[in-house]
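The protein record passed on for reference:
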Amino acid sequence: MRILNMTPSPQPLEMRPRNTGLTQGSYMFRHFDDQIKDVFKKIAIMGSLAENMIDLSMRILVERDESFADEIYKKEDEVNALQVSIDDEALRLIALNQPVAKDARSLFMASKIVTDLERIADQAKNICQSAHWVLAQPPLKPMVDLPIMAEIAQKMVRDALTSVIDRDVALAERVMREESKVDAFRDQVFRTLLTYMMADPGTIQRALSLILISRNIERIGDHATNIAEEAIYIVQGRDIRHTDPDLTKASSIA
């Protein structure tokens, strides 16, 4: 009597199920995490564009060269398109995944961050437009305070975005404390230009345009501070709006 061999033959390697070590749930979680990272990569690009717009608008003023204006308007269009794209993607991910905790905070804050970045871009465009009236006449005074003020505000934007991407609370708190420097420069610029206007009414238009520019730079600092606050909320879930930065630092150390 012939005995049949019932042991199954081994499957070829290409037919065997692949063991990735990932369950379906863990795969979906990693995919969702990657999608959130993609949202923040777009935010980083948007922030770089807004920061570059600040630099170009100040170059118009300092170098007395309006040839940079077209590039500013082009970058503004890119910033606006990114805002719409990021908002749509954040809402889509929230609707599809119903995130909780830090993931939920990240996506909700993404929409707030891009709103601040879009307004920073608007302020840079406003500087460009005010600079046109400043350049229409001879220089009123050496351009010293405004470039320094703009440099501080621009660094605040850069550091605020870094604090968001790196989840760096300490850097975000430093950004918040820098806001007082920008405010001090705004007051100094106003006092200086006021003396020019009082001494010579012919300087009023140029002086008012420069005062408006100082206000635009101050608003850039305000929006950078907002982004820093949003970074802290993402990481720690703390809403620190309308609080003293020094007290905030003390509470985070305690």
Summary: Residues 31-253 form a domain with the Methane Monooxygenase Hydroxylase; Chain G, domain 1 fold (CATH 1.20.58.220). The chain has a mean pLDDT of 88.
